Amino acid sequence: MKKLYLSFGSLTLNNLPVGAFRRRQLPASEAKALILRAKRDGLLQGVCDEDLFSPGMESKAKDHEELRQVLCDAHNIQLSMEDFTLPGSGFETVFPLNLVEVTGEQNLMIVTFSYTFRESGRDERFDINTMFRADPHSIEFDLLESWPPSQANKIDSEWEDPAEALVRLLESEGGPERLAEEARELVKEKMAKRIQKGQTD
Hints:
Number of helices: 5
Radius of gyration: 25 Å
């Protein structure tokens, strides 16, 4: 199994490989199995784009704790702050997000959340730092993976510039006639859609 890095909603250009890669949106069950297996095998490392242990970051650290709790409540994925710290550092610091790059040996999973207004009493003071909460129904899991060079080369070899494709079609036998016929069919399709739209309005 590959090393799995886990980020809460953050991504930097440094995380992306030079060349081909793919992004897959995983169902919660598959994401959970992947996270728990990586954690069991010692291959899970949480990452952060901000040092949550720095002075003045108490609010950010509290938000991160809330996200971990929402993830646990919604999908029974239990993560601690220890999962996001730099191992063997001898002091508390997060594993920096910008040190991670998607490669053939390691993937990056990004967990995203949407926020909703937190229920509060009438007499509570307005506080923008506490007025929102993570919505457990909005959690999504995206996995970034690098593509093998063989697959990337296949994509490059199959790609053809649109202008070159048009020239090739025009120079082929019967090409202009086929192009004219396709244009006529496209016009018919557009006109039919407009007529149908006019009838439904």
